[in-house]
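Lecture 7 notes. Example A: sequence first, then its structure tokens.
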Amino acid sequence: WPGILTPGLLNPYGPELLEGTYHPDPREAEGFGTEPITGERAQRIFRADPARRGASARRGVQRLLAHGTVAVAGELRGRAAVDAVRRAGLAVGRRPERLPGPPSLSPVPLVLLPAPVPGGPARFAVFDVPDRAALVRLGASTCVATVLGGRLVHRAR
């Protein structure tokens, strides 16, 4: 892969992105568009069809993986989000004392995890940037691969 290998990112907005956001299915693009839906509109979608929570959480996890996220933080309360995180193999970490800004798949500043240790889990991300300064400048959307538990869980086409 091009770029740099990092230990991956912690996204501190697990509940906001996986429980408070509706991630439309591509087949719903005509009615909902393709971008995540937040706020009252997302809540109306969930109230109208509670079964959408699970599918939305799974799509949200896929979006996080596509941004080099290997861990989420924040208290997940809904079973759909907890199951999606667990099944994907995302680690769950502590939320930073101060949140970096509004909820985002690529929060600023990025929260890099500590370096992997021998015998520890194979959990990392690869970003198509020349160095960490460029990663900070260009953001997590430059992710080309994410690995969790030694499994390739995201690969850019």
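Example B, a different protein, same format:
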Amino acid sequence: MSERKVKLYKLCHAYCDERIVVAQKAIESLQISANEETKSSAGDKYETGRSMMQLEMEKYSMQLEETIKLKQTISQIETVVQTDTVQTGCLVTTNQGNFYISISAGLLKLGDESFYAISPASPIGAKLLGLKVKDSFTFNNRSYTVQRIE
């Protein structure tokens, strides 16, 4: 397996870990704020504040849940994929950029190289799946040609 693919795999794990920590800290902070909040004589203001905190708590809880699922997904990816066709776990080089078919983690940098960690269910990921070297496709009026699959 390529060293670049191992590093990208680890970057995706780190991406998930970081998002989990951020969501957990936000939830913890909101919980502390909610516990410290005391009911004032302005009851409506108090209730509005608690409602807004509850909405924020739900938002961060959903983000945490989604990120845990992402981490489970990346953990299940076969890192030793050797194939002639693009599939989950592949590092794909095209004339328009490099793609790591894994999870939607966005732009990842390895030295001076850029890679887009994308889900196989994303629009461009779906177009890449099953392609072989020299196969082409069009996405957003741009022509892509697969140059290498790792």
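Note on Example B: Residues 91-149 form one domain. The helical segments are 3-36, 43-75, 123-128.
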